[in-house]
Design a protein that fits this description.
heterodimer; A: 272 residues; mainly alpha; two-stranded antiparallel ribbon; 2 strands; B: 171 residues; Glutaredoxin; 7-stranded mixed β-sheet; 40% helix; globular
Chain lengths: 272, 171
């Protein structure tokens, strides 16, 4: 899976190609910022050349006027229909960070029926924090709030808050309780990532939840040849996500299961 | 697998191409360093919400409280009641100008009218202002002296007490 790591690194680099932004503490202001990236990558990361789809979705539900984000919804549909959660496995910088931490040689918590149940939690996060809370805030206060970005997103803390605060004294001075909470959350997730494979992606990520809904119908991804499959479950014994079968909504198309399939029933690529 | 790689690489190449075409934006941010304390605030044109055109230099002669905001920014609209509360006490000593960076002036005007705020609000070109003032986030507030020099700046929303302390720096 060297190729996957290479693509993950390249993606992270291309998402965040404004490298001088990191030491200048400045955000990229080019027109590419109005383009949604496929993966979760904070708009306010100093290196970010594009917008986070979850952030863009939240942005439309922020402030004193709620908007229907046709462009963002269309972009998410396009990415979902084309690639599904393959994006999580191949083109998400925060997923890469978690995977690298998981490589540290420590005891690992294996997937269980409990983690499979916990994987449903991300759908609740998506509905409550991305959709409902901004609208509830709007109805109660007249101002929508980007609840997921504001209260939860660890990618934002890692990619934006920390690098910007490191070089910008004014921003450091304005950090408060909310930053402390989000830093704590980030540290918990990063620490958990050492012993649990991609915990944020499996249990919390609203973007993964959304893309997962397209996994069965996406053009590219993991496909199981029913005629060849002997239901030996070798693939599921290898799977680090919470899949019940290769290519289901939890599958991030990492492709690890292909190498253990005794009948070569699993393929990764164009499905239809 | 190859098709996935090709698809991803094409996607990344398209992004890289788009960004390369935009490479001037990295350097475009550099002049913004001028918008620092003790430097003269870069001039810019704006329109008051009634459509009257103006520029920042026209406000010279009195200190200026300059705020950048947008209707989609919860902290921005959250601090506006404080602007409105202190404005009657300071308007003779300090010029207020809250510049909306919204996509269109109508949204800003509708919001201000709906809230009944009395402090002056303008509408500016976000691309022009973001570069000139190196706006890294909103709300961003600046305090200028009577000659247009930046006395203080603040990123983030202020409470009424913080706002008063901020304004006092100009008096």
């Amino acid at each position: 899976m060297v190729k996957r790591k290479l693509v993950q690194f390249l993606t992270a680099l291309l998402y965040n190609g404004n490298l001088p932004g990191f030491w200048q503490g400045r955000l990229w202001q080019g027109s590419s910022k109005s383009v949604c990236l496929p993966g979760l990558n904070c708009y306010s990361c100093p290196g970010a050349l594009g917008a986070c789809p979850v952030g863009a979705l939240q942005s439309s539900l922020s402030g004193v006027f709620l908007r229907v984000p046709f462009y963002v919804i269309g972009t998410l549909l396009l990415f979902g229909l084309l690639l599904g959660r393959l994006i999580c496995g191949w083109a998400c910088p925060f997923g890469l960070v978690q995977e690298l931490l998981y490589k540290l040689p420590t005891p690992k918590l294996q997937r269980t029926a409990f983690t499979a149940r916990l994987a449903r939690f991300k759908y609740l996060i998506a509905i409550v924090f991305v959709l409902l809370l901004p609208i509830v805030y709007y109805l109660l206060t007249g101002t929508g709030v980007p609840a997921f970005c504001k209260f939860l997103c660890p990618a934002g803390t890692l990619e934006a808050a920390l690098p910007l605060a490191a070089v910008n004294a004014k921003l450091r001075g304005s950090l408060g309780v909310l930053f402390s909470w989000k830093l704590l959350l980030l540290l918990v997730i990063l620490t958990a990532s050492v012993g649990i494979y991609r915990p944020f992606c499996r249990f919390l990520c609203p973007l993964g939840a959304l893309y997962g809904l397209f996994n069965r119908i996406s053009l590219f991804g993991v496909k199981v040849d029913a005629a060849k499959c002997i239901h030996c479950d070798a693939c599921m014994r290898t799977c680090l996500m919470d899949c019940r079968q290769a290519g289901d909504r939890e599958c991030i198309a990492c492709g690890e299961c292909r190498s253990v399939c005794p009948t070569d029933a699993i393929s990764l690529g164009k499905k239809f | 697998m190859k098709k996935i790689l090709i698809c991803l690489l094409l996607l990344l190449a398209a992004m890289a191409g788009g960004c390369a075409a935009d490479s001037s934006k990295t350097t475009a941010a550099a002049p913004a360093a001028a918008a620092q304390a003790s430097q003269t605030a870069p001039d810019f044109s704006f329109a008051y919400l009634d459509g009257t055109k103006a520029s920042l230099t026209q406000l010279r002669g009195k200190p200026v409280f300059l705020n950048f905001w947008a209707t989609w920014c919860p902290p921005c609209v959250g601090e506006m009641p404080h602007f409105n509360a202190v404005y009657p006490r300071y308007k003779d000593k300090i010029n207020f100008l809250a510049v909306s960076l919204d996509d269109n002036m109508q949204e800003a005007a509708a919001f201000i009218q709906q809230q009944g705020y009395s402090f002056p609000v303008g509408y500016g070109n976000v691309n022009d202002l973001a570069g000139k003032y190196d706006i890294q986030g909103i709300p961003t507030s600046l305090l200028l002296d009577a000659d247009g020099k930046i006395i203080a700046s603040k990123i983030g929303a202020m409470t009424e007490t913080e706002l008063e302390a901020f304004l006092q720096k100009a008096l």
